[in-house]
């Protein structure tokens, strides 16, 4: 042993009894002597075996004792630290604590060290460029984002029933908000969290991207107490974008079909396309349909406008023989359309049809106008009822299709005036009887009744007199209103064909011949033709 240098030496001496040496035999002898873990390169041992077998004498080095040795490397960007651990050959081994101490001495901060990697290297006794520390990377900031505070109109989810069937006409109710309702919150961008490299120097994060609300946020206003919140400024339907929201008093749809389902909306609705067959469109405000209406049910609380036409379908006949119609249009204001075919239409005020109405049931509280001011303006078949007037370019058809027209409110005021006159006659009769009774008492022709009964007689007389005056006033106003009201009429601008039935203010007349331009109104118990 060369203890200072940690070398194990061998000495070759002559011997007549020794057997030839080989590499395995030499390794066994080293292990038996307690030097099996020492560093003994194969080339060194092979050289010793060769010299022994060649009969050479002298001293030679067989093995070397080596302690474990470390090599540390810090990455140029200081994002990581690496360990190369040379194993111990019969010498001192390094523990995890020793490795940690050396690594800290390199200037690496403890928060970036991987203790598990150091433990693994110490237990294995060797390592090759093992990463034992890594920089704590900064956490980038989050971009500003927007969170809806009310329900959004997501894509219509179709649901199956127990039999696996899907209702494509499922009613879809859209959200309506009132002024002051919070709609959208902006979550501001964050700065992120800083990190540090393995040497403890800070690594600055990338801040999140700030985002502003859309500039086109009509119908909304910022919250006076929170600039990151938008509130509704008007009543309407909220329409969300990627970074904003607007409140639209009108719900705008591309079409009403399987993509939307049936619609029930509190407000006005504008449909850019068609309303498909079998669907319901219900709105409390106005409805504007730029396309067609096909066998659908449309109900508008305000005006209803169909820029295209209405194409319906009959589904049999009613008990009275009239057609049963699948398409229903109802308007709380005015309704206008290019044409209407096989539909039931009920309008509170005026009905305007440019081209024609074919085999329909039309009901309008005031006027029905066909072709005014432009269009063919034909009413063909079916029935039409108007509260005041019906004006058409053509009534009926050359084929003589049966067409019924009714205008006015037959006998409504007359019946009411008659009822009031009957009430007036009874009131005057009772009043006269009470007056006669009081006159007899005053002349002494009758015994004087008790005081309380006499008071009731006077009170009854005064009450009947006041009632008589009220009834007379009502009769005068009704008669005056009837005389000043514009008479109900049916006006045909161009041609009135045969097989037409007209009813004006309760007087009916059937026409089996053609007429030219005509204006019919009631005169007494007859319908007369004016200019």
Describe this structure as you would to a colleague.
This protein has six helices and 38 strands. It starts with 6 loop residues before the first strand and ends with a strand. The model has no long low-confidence stretch (mean pLDDT 86). β13 and β14 form a beta hairpin. Helices cover 20% and strands 37% of the residues. The protein has 531 residues and is an alpha/beta fold. The strands form seven sheets. The chain has a 23-stranded mixed sheet that branches. A four-stranded antiparallel sheet has the order 6-8-12-11, with no helix packed on it.
Q: What ranges have pLDDT less than 50 throughout 5 or more consecutive residues?
A: none
- % residues in beta strands: 35-45%
Q: Which percent bin holds the helix content? A: 10-25%
End-to-end C-alpha gap:
144 Å
- Sheet with the most strands, sense and barrel status: 23 strands, mixed
Structural class: alpha/beta
Determine Rg (CA atoms, Å): 53 Å
Q: What would a concise description of this structure say?
A:
This protein is α/β, with parallel strands linked by helices. It has 6 helices and 38 strands.
Helix/strand layout:
Layout: E1 7-12, H1 23-32, H2 42-53, E2 58-64, E3 69-74, E4 80-86, H3 96-105, H4 115-124, E5 127-134, E6 145-148, E7 171-173, E8 182-187, E9 195-196, E10 202-203, E11 220-223, E12 226-232, E13 237-241, E14 244-248, E15 250-253, E16 262-265, E17 268-271, E18 280-283, E19 287-289, E20 293-294, E21 297-300, E22 304-306, E23 310-311, E24 314-317, E25 323-325, E26 327-331, E27 335-341, E28 343-347, E29 351-364, E30 367-370, E31 378-386, E32 389-395, E33 403-407, H5 412-443, H6 451-484, E34 489-496, E35 500-504, E36 507-511, E37 518-523, E38 526-530
Parallel strand pairs: 7-16, 15-17, 16-18, 17-19, 18-21, 19-22, 20-23, 21-26, 22-27, 23-27, 26-28, 27-29, 28-29, 29-30, 29-31, 30-32, 31-32, 31-33, 32-34, 33-35
Antiparallel strand pairs: 1-2, 3-4, 4-5, 6-8, 8-12, 9-10, 11-12, 13-14, 24-25, 34-37, 35-36, 37-38
Helix pairs in contact: 5-6
């Amino acid at each position: 042993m060369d203890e200072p240098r940690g070398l194990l030496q061998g000495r070759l001496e002559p011997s007549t009894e020794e057997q030839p040496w080989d590499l395995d035999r030499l390794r066994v002898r080293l292990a038996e002597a307690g030097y099996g873990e020492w560093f003994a390169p194969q080339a060194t041992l092979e050289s010793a075996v060769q010299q022994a077998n060649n009969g050479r004498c002298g001293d030679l080095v067989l093995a070397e004792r080596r302690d474990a040795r470390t090599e540390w490397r810090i990455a140029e960007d200081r994002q990581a630290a690496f360990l190369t651990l040379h194993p111990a050959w019969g010498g001192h081994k390094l523990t995890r604590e020793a490795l940690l101490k050396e690594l800290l001495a390199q200037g690496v901060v403890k928060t970036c060290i991987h203790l598990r990697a150091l433990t693994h290297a110490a237990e294995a006794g060797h390592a090759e460029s093992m990463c034992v520390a890594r920089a704590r990377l900064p956490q980038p900031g989050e971009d500003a984002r927007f969170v809806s505070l009310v329900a959004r109109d997501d894509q219509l989810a179709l649901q199956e029933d127990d039999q696996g069937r899907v209702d494509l006409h499922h009613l879809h109710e859209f959200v309506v908000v009132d002024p002051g309702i919070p709609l959208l919150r902006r979550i501001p961008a964050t700065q992120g969290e800083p990190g540090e490299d393995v040497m403890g120097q800070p690594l600055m994060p990338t801040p999140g991207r700030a985002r502003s609300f859309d500039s086109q946020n009509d119908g909304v206003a910022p919250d006076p107490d929170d600039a990151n919140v938008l509130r509704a400024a008007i009543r309407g339907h909220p329409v969300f974008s990627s970074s904003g929201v607007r409140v639209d008093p009108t719900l705008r749809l591309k079409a009403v079909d399987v993509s939307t389902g049936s619609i029930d909306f509190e407000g006005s609705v504008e449909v850019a396309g068609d309303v498909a067959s079998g669907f319901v469109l219900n709105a409390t405000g106005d409805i504007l349909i730029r396309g067609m209406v096909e066998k659908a049910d449309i109900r508008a609380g305000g005006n209803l406008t169909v820029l295209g036409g209405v194409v319906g379908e009959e589904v049999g006949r009613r008990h009275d023989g009239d057609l049963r119609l699948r398409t229903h249009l109802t308007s709380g204001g005015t309704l206008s359309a290019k044409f209407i075919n096989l539909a039931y239409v009920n309008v509170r005020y005026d009905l305007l049809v440019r081209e024609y109405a074919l085999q329909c049931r039309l009901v309008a509280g005031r006027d029905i106008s066909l072709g005014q001011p432009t269009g063919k303006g034909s009413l063909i078949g079916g029935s039409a009822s108007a509260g005041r007037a019906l004006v058409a370019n053509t009534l009926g058809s050359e084929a003589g299709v049966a067409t019924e027209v009714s205008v006015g409110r037959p006998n409504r005021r007359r019946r009411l005036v008659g009822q009031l006159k009957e009430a007036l006659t009874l009131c005057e009769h009772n009043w006269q009887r009470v007056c006669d009774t009081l006159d007899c008492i005053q002349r002494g022709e009758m015994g004087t009744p008790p005081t309380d009964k006499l008071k009731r007689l006077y009170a009854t007389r005064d009450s009947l007199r006041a009632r008589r005056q009220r009834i007379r006033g009502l009769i005068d106003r009704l008669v005056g209103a009837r005389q000043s009201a514009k008479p109900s009429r049916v006006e045909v601008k161009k041609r009135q064909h045969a097989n037409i039935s007209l009813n004006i203010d309760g007087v009916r007349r059937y026409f089996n011949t053609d007429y030219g331009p005509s204006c019919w109104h009631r005169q007494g118990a007859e319908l007369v033709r004016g200019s």
